[in-house]
Amino acid sequence: MLIYVVRRLLLAVPLLLGILFLTFFLMQLVPGSPVERLLGERGGTPEERARLMREYNFDRPWWEQFGLYVARLARGDLGTSVNQVPIAAEIADRFPNTCILALTSVALATALGLLTGVLSAVKPGSWTDHACRFVAVFGLSTPVFWFGLMLMLFFALKLRWLPSSSDTPSLAVNLILPSITLGLRPAAFIQRVTRSTLMDILRTDFIRTARAKGLSEWTVVLGHALRNALLPIVTLIGLDLGSLLSGSLITETIFNFRGIGLYALKGIQDRDPNVVMATVLLSSFLFLLANLIVDVLYAVLDPRVRYE
Amino acid sequence: MSRRLTPLEAGWRLLSGNPLTLAGAVGAAALCVVALAAPWIAPYPVGVESLASTLGTTLEPPSLGHLFGTDWHGSDVFSKVIMGTRVTIFIGLVASLLSMVIGVLVGVASGYFGGWIDTVLMRLTDVVLAFPSLLLTILIAASLGSGVTSIFLALTVSGWAGTGRMVRSLVLTLREQEFVLAAVAAGAGAGRIIFHHILPNCLSTLIVLFTLRIGITILSEASLSFLGLGAPSSAPSWGVMVFYGMDHVRQAPWVAIWPASAIAVTVLCFNFLGDGLRDALDPKMRDVL
What we know:
heterodimer, A: mainly alpha, 0% strand, B: mainly alpha, globular
């Protein structure tokens, strides 16, 4: 198992390098001289220009620039943004926010998805089932920004219960609307997988045995069936968490939530190479890590799964 | 049943049994009609903002005269949404088709020829798949600058990888089947085997993937536009309309709500249709997609 984990982590290195290279290549496509672009209309003093040249090695060919960036990265240095803020500090400041938002969203999504999924699966074809499935399809089809916008209009602007922008002193209040917005889609996915897996399991022999023993229906469904349906659900929750941890660009933009997604977007808008590279690297790394953790959890949850 | 169903009969059998699929099919067809006939449906011409704004009818709430109200320029939001159907559906269809074509080319080359081609293409696929998709789309659109071409490129480059992986696995299984072996024995070349034997057998999966991809593409385009990276135009896509509507969302929420709802309904239609098609054409895919 340990060998498997180490091998997967080693395999992630070339993948991350590939992602960095693709990002670097895309940043090269931005038209115009990078120094002019970064300094903006005011042009900047000769010292500023010299500093940017040093920071990004713009005087070297692009492959050397990439090599130098990777070499610096290998030493654990993410560099500074154009306005000279260390990127590592900015990420350390924002990442906890994104983490809390991702965790609340996934917790909400899990609760909602499992509840509606179980309700759907115990009585397929019933009105409850149809209602739950409709909510799921709604969740899958709704643009995140539309849903966020509606929540904001209704709860923040019409009822005035909650702030429309997440910059109030109370983190809990700031989290409510963004986490509902962000949790809708994962909830829909969890509902679908719970429903289909649970329905398959409810048809198996050991469930008939459990019922024949005279167990109550809820013990059968929650104690016997759901427990065996957990594997794909856990997979999904893990992968959702992995993608949400890299920050949600849209949700963080709508609610002006100070997280990684907003930082990545700002980096892209400013065409700030170091910020873009760092945020892309972080996002992809978290995504790959979540995949790995899910695969390991498989083996823990299901003794039949073995990795060589 | 001894006789093969004609496509029409098969289609009807699929739709009549499943109300959601039927709703999706009707909705998608209606949207295509609206897209084609947009200039005749829209009650007001779009793009003569300067004239209307001098008449003092800007940001007018929905009424009988202006079903969805008017925007900041005094344009009729309903007419703009109708005209936006054309842009949005066009981008959705074309960008989905482009990413499907690339995905199929990559998948077939990878699965059929194997070897170093497979290694190179699949590592590339791995990189794109591990790249957070929206981030990649935004990065490409932002690097290439605003414009329709950069949006198509962004949506295509970030969208082909899933199809590529799927087609490769299909081709890998099909390649080992007897009928392909028979074709090889009969002396058929690679091109003939791919186009006459392998691709026709992938078709049902490809149709499903394409239908579901349209919804994803429209959502991605809308997200791009929402972040201000859409293509500016006199007849903007729904996403671009939402982006500009956000400026006045407090005083005039209808300017943003209607196009955003149009996006939601459109994606809903294509998802219903895609789900129904998947269940009907390829029940095995239930777990995969």
